[in-house]
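pinging the channel bc i need a second pair of eyes. not urgent but kinda urgent?? the chain im working w is below, pasted from the shared doc
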Amino acid sequence: QVRLQSRDFGQHLSQVDDLLQIHALVEGDVAAQAERVRSVGAAAERFLGEGGGYRPCPPEQLRARVAALERRYRGLSALSAQRRLRLERSRRLWKFLWDAGEEEAWMREQERLLRCPELGRDLPGALRMLSQLEAIRGALGGRAGPLQQLLERGRELLAQGAPDGAAGPVEATPASVEATPGSTGSAKPAESAAGPTESPPGPPESRNASLGRAAGPTPGSAEGPSASPTRASERPDGPTEPIGGPPEPPEGPPGPAPGSPDPAAAVSRRIRELESLWAALPALAGAHALGLFAARSEADACALWVGEREQWLLSMEIPERIEDLEVVQQRFETLEPELAALAARVASVGRVTQELQGSGDRNRESARETWEQLRDRWERFRALAERKKLALTAALNIHNFRLECHETRGWMREKTAAIEATRALGRDLAGITALQGKLSGMGRDLDAIQGKLRELRAEGEKLQGEQPERAPEIREGLAGLEAEWDALRRCHRSREESLGQARRLQGFLRDLAALQAWLSRTRAAAGSEDVPASLAEAEGSLRQHESLRTEISHYGADYRSARAAGREVTRGQTDAQSLSLLQRLEALDADWEELGRVWKKRQRLLAQAVAFHVFLRDAKQVEGTLGKQEHTLAHTEMPGTVPGAEAAVRRLEEFLAALDTGAERVRALTDTGRKLLDEGGVHAEKVRETVESVESRHQKIRESAQELLGRLRDNWELQKFLQDGQELTLWLNEKLPVARDVSYEGTRDLQGKWQKHQAFAAELAANRGWLEALEKVG
């Protein structure tokens, strides 16, 4: 349903086709669900048609569910049909737009050909263009019918409520059609006027043709001389032929052709056309002159700007001071937007020059030479600016490198002085700790300095490759850095070596004191004699005791490290302090072994306590289960019906199965109790009593259940016999009236009665076995 309610109807023809294929698959899925809906309805009718008795749900609810399902399916089918209709409409729309686009492209191409200002410069050229025009007119006539059909399709789409995007293409197509025949109509007289250009019809026709070529199609010519220079320079056409006197007269005037119009009227019309063309020539000449003047002015301005900046760049020397370099860099930053603006102006001059080249102006060669000179000078200036900028960047890189080297050397001198200042610290533990902290922080600073050195080395190598003439200066800076770095590392290493022995001694004394204090606390905690009173308390104490073992293992490494450090410190020493350290080491070994023995003893005690309380918990659970089983056996009665007797037998069989399953728990409990008895302990007597009680009760329950099962099965057989006898009695009472029927005096229906009697005798014979089986069981 979500897919069918989608508002996506495609954005082009191929996408609509894809959506239609996807919708066909969806329609197949919807159609495939119809049989399932019908089967659900049939199943519901079967449930509704059944007689009285148990029903899973009310009939009204079932009918409502079936009706809702069918309604949903009908809605889904309607949505599918509606989306199919919309997709088809969308495809018709995009197919129309596709065809309209192709028609418009063809018409634009034909319109471009019809608006061409070229009308032929001789008779063969004019005839060729006339034949081309006739071919275009023929093509227009041939495409008129399909185009009208396309327009009708567009109007139908608009009438049906096509999307807003269709109105533009549909309404634009007729305008294009109307414009194209107009173009052909306007081109036809122009061709006719251009035809006699080179033929000798007489002075009026020849001069008209010459003026027509001079005042050819000039877009924007209506603006007049007041138009801007840019607009005037954009006009592609202009006077192409000089206006001179009348051409030489022909050798003889031709006579009028048969059926031709009045010569006087033709001459009058020609004169009026000549006067209008003559009046338009000054405006066109002024516009072309204005465009040429604007292009030259713009080229001169660009050349002047380039000359000024080029002179500045040529006279500029790269300074040595960093302040002067920054000033020059700022000047280059302001020069970049000026270069971008000038590039646009140069490109504009180039465009105007190209337009003048196609206009036939007599000054077009001069404009082209000016443009080429400006372009070459502009390219040279750009290359010069780029070279100067690269030189400035290289000088800045050298100055920055020297500055960073100087700052790094100062940084290393400060760290060397700080390391030397640590010699004033004391030899006690506090002084050694403070010194260790300073040296540790100094190590991080040394790592940072080393990283900075790597960066400066890489930068120096790069600068040597880029500026080989400055290589000695760069190597000198790097050598000073390396010397300061070696001095700093030697100072740091000497301080670490001189204070290492004192640090190890103070660290050993601190670790030894902490380890002895921990041993005293842990031995007191592990030597407790408390006996847990509950399972939770026993488990908690055991977990705590196990965590104590983990702690002991963790401190094992500290103990071994302290003994090794002590042996190293006292090796070969005979002074009083060394002898005192040896005695403390011996006491440490004794305390460590005592801790292990105390922990193992406490662990055995807690493990026995946990096992005993777990046994008590399981015993209570088993005794509770046995009590429930005894209660079930004591309250089991003999049912008076066959279903009740059968259900009682099934329940007791399930009870025996559960009893067999529970026997595993009883055996596990007794095994645990015997294991506890083997281990001994203060609770041995209670464990023995519990084991004996559980075993005896379980055995008694099993025997009682077996006996009760036999009695229930006998009762089941009895109830089945009584039910069968009752059913047979009811059947006999039902058939006795049929056997006693003696209404056979008439012979009219005697055959039918005889057939009924035979059927009754066959039924008696079939049920004879029922009676015999009942007698046998009884």
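so Residues 576-634 form the longest helix (59 residues). and The two ends are 69 Å apart (CA to CA). — does that match what u expected or am i reading it wrong
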